[in-house]
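Workshop exercise sheet. Pairs work together: one partner reads the sequence aloud, the other fills in the structure field after running the prediction. Swap roles for the next sheet.
Pair: D.N. / O.F.
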Amino acid sequence: MNLLLVIAVGYLLGSIPWGLWLPRWWKGIDVRKHGSGNMGAANVARAVGTRWGIGVAVLDISKGAAAALVGLAVAGSLGAVVAGAAAMVGHYRPLFLGFAQGGKSVATGLGAALAVAPLAALCVVLIWGTLFIATRYSSIASLTSSVALPLLAFTFGAPAPVLVFLSCAGFAVIVFHRKNVVRLIRGTENRFGFSRRPWDWRTPRAPQAPPPPG
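Structure field:
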């Protein structure tokens, strides 16, 4: 019964589509019609600006962490990983959007990892940030981090349920990014451009053609 409870709570928390709601409430923008069409923080940053992308990332991390912490309080370490997994499922197929396509669960999974394997998760935050700044591809940073997280958790001595969860979560993130992998191979993946204004990191726009003479 306790596990069923934490699954339900985790799924409901994960289903909160902050990446859709915040831009719609404050900017009147549906991010699904911009960029990659994804509701993750990266596409929110492309559509409405970096400050909004950061806000969505923090909220998505928070809901993953909250789900895992509720699971930990109710049903111990097993409850934490089950609730964290449910939150990732909720983010990917949110109830509040009629089970339509959601985000790729990177930030939500990271939040759950912060609750069950904090040292490994903090290291992965550094890895993600370094790769993102170096390559300007959020997909490369996310794919590498999904592989690194269970390995780091194993190094730090995480228990077996946590390692299984992080390994499965990492595999799921890779599967969710399969279209990004194809675009990376083809050289068509969305890439961020860094301007002098740190709150305006967006996908570079193609230069406009000069007006015709006369």
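Discussion prompt: The chain has one domain: 2-186. What would you look at next?
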